[in-house]
Specification:
heterodimer; A: alpha/beta; two-stranded antiparallel ribbon; globular; B: alpha/beta; Rossmann fold; 2 domains; 37% helix
C-alpha cells in the first residue's frame, strides 16, 4: 500500500469512528447515565480526520470543550473516554474531568479544557518544551472561532511567534459561539487567518474540501513548524449539526439560516466517504467491514463503561496535590 | 553587613542553586534579564544559564502562566516572576483553572512543578492597584500552596522547597523585605523547609501573636516593646499560608489563652478570619478572651503619603491591641517608639521610585 492510500484509509477510519461514537453518545444520552455536558462533533469530523493522518509519534495535542473528535483522531483510548463520560473510575481522568477534560498520555493527548482559550497557552508551553528538547515534535492546539475573541490567544500567539515555537494552531471555525453567530462577535469581512498572519505567524485558511489536497496543505504547514521555522495557524470552516451542548438537534430555535444548514449538510464529509474511497482505490467492502468493527468497538466500550465502578469518595479526595495523599 | 546577603540576594542564591541542580528548570518573567533584574533577584541568571532557560517575556501574564503550566507538565520546573502581585490578577484563569487543577482533574497523571513569585508593593505611594496582599485568594484554591517568608534566613530554604515541590506554589515577597539582612552568615546550606511549618520567633506566656510576611517584622518590634512592659508575647510567623501550621497555633493558644492575628490582607472574608476560625474550632476552651485581628482596612489603599501612616497599621497598633487583650492601658510613649515618622518607606535609605 502506498503512502497516499495509507493516509486515505486513516482518514476514513477516523471519520467513521468519530461519527459513530458521537451518534451513539447522542442516542444513549437520554438514558441519563452520562450526566455531564457533552459537546459533540457531528458535522465537524473533516479536520480531525485529516489531523489523524498528519501527526507523528511523539507529537502532542491539547483541545477544547469539544474534544471527542481530536482525542479519537489521535488514537485516544475509546473505552476510557466513554467511561469518563459515564463518570466511572476507569475513565481517562478517573471520573474527575468528564467529557470536557479528556486525556491520554500514551498517545500525547495532554488534555482538553472547558474554558474557552484556556488550553492555548498550555499547548504553547508544551511546544516550547519540544523546541528546548530539539525533538522535532510539534504540539497541536485545537481552538475555535470563539477563542479568537479571548485575549489569551493573542498573548500566546505573540509569544509563539517571538520564539519560533513549534505549535500548530488548528482553528475550527464553526461560525457560532453557542447560539451567537460571528456577525455580532467579529467585524464584517474578518478573515481569522489574515488577522493571525499579522501577528507574525504563518497562517492559512484551508478552503478545499478534497481530503488529500487538504492533507498535503496541512502537512506542508506542519513541516514548516516541525523544522523550526515557527508556529503555524490553520483555519478551517466547519459546521456542527446538533446543539452546542447536548445530544439533540436545535434548529427549531431558528438561530441558524436554513440555507446555511442545507449547504453544509449537502456536503457532509462522512456521507461522501465512499466517493473518496473509490477515488483512492479503496474497496467499498473495506468501509462496510470498518463500520461493523467500529460498531463492535463502540458496543464494547459502552458495555464496559456501564459495568465499571464509580470512583469512591476516598479516591476523589486524593490527588489535590502531587506527591502527597490527603494533604 | 557587607559580607552578608539580604532577602533579595537569598532569592537569587536559591534560584541559581536550583537552576544549577536541574538543567531543565526555567525562569520566566518581564524584567528577568533587564539591568535591574527584578530588584536584583534575577541578576546574572541569563549570563549563567542562557536565554533559553531565562526567558524575558512579553507583558502577557495570563498566557505566560499557561506556558509555565505547559512547561511544568513537560518536566521543566518553572519559576515565573512578577514585579507586582496586582498584575498577576490577569492570570487568574491559568492559575485557578489550569495550574491548580491539572494534577487532580486528569486523574493525578501529570504534576505541575511551578513556582510563581509575586512581589507585594508597600509604601511610596503604591496606591490602590500596586499594594494588594491577596494571599487569601490563592489560599482558597485547592491545589495551590502559598508561602510568605518574613525573615531573611527563611528565604533560601523556602524558595528551594517551592521550586522542588511538584505542585504550583505561590511565593509572596514583601517588597520592603528585599533589603533586609538576617542571620544567614552561619546558616547551614542544607536546611530543608517543610511546608506547613511555622517559625516560633519568640516564646511567651501572655499573648500569642500570629502573623506572616512583613507583619511578622512589625509584630517582632511590638513584642520587644511589650517585653519591656512586662507582657511576654509569643510570636508565630506562619511562613506557610497553605498548608497552615494548625498545631503550632493551637499549642500556643493553649498556653497563652489570648491571641492576636496580624494580617496584611483585607479583613472581611480574609486570611485572618480563617485563622480565627481554626482557633475557635480547635482551641476554644483555652481562650480567655475573644481572638483579636489586625488586618488591612476594608478600603482600597490610598496613594497619598500624607495620610498613609494613619491609614495603615504599624507595630504601634499591634502593641496597642496586645495591651487591650491584657486589659491594660497603652503607655503614652508607645507611639513614639513604634509608629515610624515616615510610614511610606522601610528605612531612611529607601528613595523609591517603585
Amino acid at each position: 500500500m502506498n503512502y497516499k492510500s495509507e493516509s486515505a484509509i486513516r482518514i476514513i477510519d477516523t471519520a467513521i469512528l468519530i461519527r459513530r461514537v458521537e451518534e451513539r453518545i447522542a442516542t444513549e444520552y437520554q438514558n441519563l447515565q452520562m450526566r455531564c455536558p457533552v459537546h459533540l462533533s457531528i458535522g465537524q469530523e473533516f479536520i480531525s480526520s485529516i489531523f489523524s493522518a498528519v501527526y507523528i509519534e511523539g507529537d502532542t495535542a491539547l483541545s477544547t470543550h469539544r474534544a471527542h473528535a481530536h482525542y479519537l483522531a489521535m488514537s485516544g483510548n475509546l473505552n476510557r473516554m466513554i467511561a469518563e463520560i459515564f463518570g466511572k473510575s476507569t475513565g481517562c481522568s478517573r471520573g474527575r474531568g468528564g467529557s470536557m477534560h479528556l486525556v491520554d498520555l500514551e498517545v500525547g493527548f495532554l488534555g482538553s479544557s472547558a474554558i474557552v482559550g484556556n488550553s492555548i497557552p498550555v499547548g504553547v508551553g508544551v511546544a516550547l518544551s519540544h523546541k528546548i528538547n530539539r525533538n522535532g515534535r510539534v504540539c497541536f492546539v485545537f481552538l475555535g472561532d470563539g477563542a479568537i475573541e479571548e485575549g489569551v490567544f493573542y498573548e500566546s500567539a505573540n509569544f509563539a511567534a517571538i520564539h519560533k515555537i513549534p505549535v500548530v494552531f488548528m482553528c475550527e471555525n464553526n461560525f457560532y459561539s453557542v447560539y451567537t453567530n460571528l456577525q455580532p462577535r467579529q467585524p464584517k469581512g474578518r478573515i481569522i487567518s489574515d488577522l493571525v498572519s499579522a501577528i507574525g505567524i504563518k497562517s492559512k485558511k484551508v478552503e478545499s474540501k478534497d481530503p488529500i489536497r487538504v492533507l498535503n496543505e496541512i502537512e506542508k504547514l506542519v513541516e514548516h513548524s516541525r523544522s523550526g521555522l515557527g508556529p503555524v495557524f490553520i483555519e478551517i470552516e466547519t459546521y456542527r449539526y446538533i446543539e452546542h451542548c447536548g445530544p439533540n438537534p436545535d434548529d427549531d430555535l431558528n438561530y441558524r439560516p436554513e440555507s446555511e444548514i442545507k449547504t453544509w449538510r449537502e456536503s457532509d464529509f462522512v456521507e461522501s466517504l465512499e466517493i473518496f474511497a473509490k477515488a483512492n482505490n479503496i474497496d467499498l467492502d473495506y468501509i462496510r467491514e470498518l463500520e461493523n468493527s467500529i460498531l463492535n468497538r463502540i458496543e464494547e466500550a459502552f458495555t464496559e463503561a456501564k459495568n465499571a465502578p464509580f470512583p469512591t469518595l476516598v479516591d476523589t479526595l486524593n490527588d489535590v496535590y502531587a506527591g502527597a495523599r490527603n494533604e | 553587613m557587607n559580607n552578608q546577603i539580604n532577602f533579595a540576594g537569598e532569592i537569587l542564591r536559591a534560584t541559581k542553586n536550583e537552576m544549577k541542580k536541574d538543567p531543565k528548570s526555567i525562569v520566566m518573567g518581564l524584567g528577568v534579564t533587564d539591568p535591574k533584574g527584578v530588584f536584583g533577584t534575577t541578576l546574572g541568571l541569563v549570563e549563567d544559564f542562557g536565554s533559553e532557560r531565562v526567558i524575558e517575556t512579553p507583558t502577557s501574564e495570563n498566557a505566560m502562566t499557561g506556558v509555565g503550566v505547559g512547561l511544568a507538565i513537560s518536566g521543566h520546573r518553572t519559576i515565573l516572576v512578577h514585579q507586582r502581585l496586582d498584575f498577576f490578577l490577569l492570570a487568574m484563569d491559568q492559575l485557578v483553572n489550569s495550574a491548580a487543577k491539572w494534577h487532580y482533574m486528569y486523574g493525578g497523571q501529570m504534576s505541575v512543578p511551578l513556582t510563581i513569585r509575586l512581589i507585594m508593593g508597600r509604601g511610596w505611594g503604591q496606591g490602590p492597584t500596586h499594594s494588594q496582599n491577596l494571599h487569601a485568594w490563592f489560599a482558597h484554591i485547592p491545589g495551590l500552596k502559598v508561602l510568605m517568608p518574613a525573615f531573611t534566613e527563611d528565604v533560601y530554604p523556602m524558595l528551594c522547597a517551592a521550586i522542588n515541590d511538584p505542585n504550583p506554589v505561590i511565593f509572596l515577597e514583601d517588597r520592603w523585605l528585599h533589603g533586609q539582612y538576617g542571620n544567614t552568615k552561619n546558616q547551614k546550606s542544607n536546611i530543608i523547609f517543610e511546608f506547613g511549618k511555622a517559625r516560633l520567633v519568640r516564646s511567651g506566656k501572655d499573648v500569642t501573636i500570629i502573623s506572616s510576611g512583613y507583619g511578622s517584622i512589625l509584630s517582632l518590634n511590638a513584642a520587644k516593646y511589650l517585653a519591656n512592659h512586662n507582657i511576654d508575647a509569643e510570636l508565630i510567623d506562619l511562613r506557610s499560608i497553605r498548608p497552615v501550621d494548625l498545631n503550632s497555633i493551637v499549642e500556643s493558644v493553649a498556653k497563652t489563652g489570648r491571641v492576636l492575628v496580624v494580617d496584611s490582607g483585607h479583613e472581611f472574608s480574609g486570611f485572618a478570619s480563617e485563622i480565627v476560625k481554626l482557633i475557635v474550632t480547635y482551641a476554644f476552651s483555652s481562650l480567655k478572651s475573644a481572638p483579636e485581628v489586625i488586618a488591612a482596612r476594608d478600603v482600597p489603599e490610598p496613594t497619598s503619603h500624607g495620610v498613609i501612616g494613619e491609614f495603615k497599621y504599624d507595630a504601634f497598633e499591634i502593641a496597642q491591641k496586645a495591651f487591650q487583650l491584657m486589659g491594660r492601658l497603652t503607655p503614652p510613649d508607645c507611639k513614639n517608639f513604634l509608629k515610624p515618622l515616615l510610614s511610606d518607606v522601610p528605612d531612611g535609605n529607601f528613595k523609591g521610585p517603585f
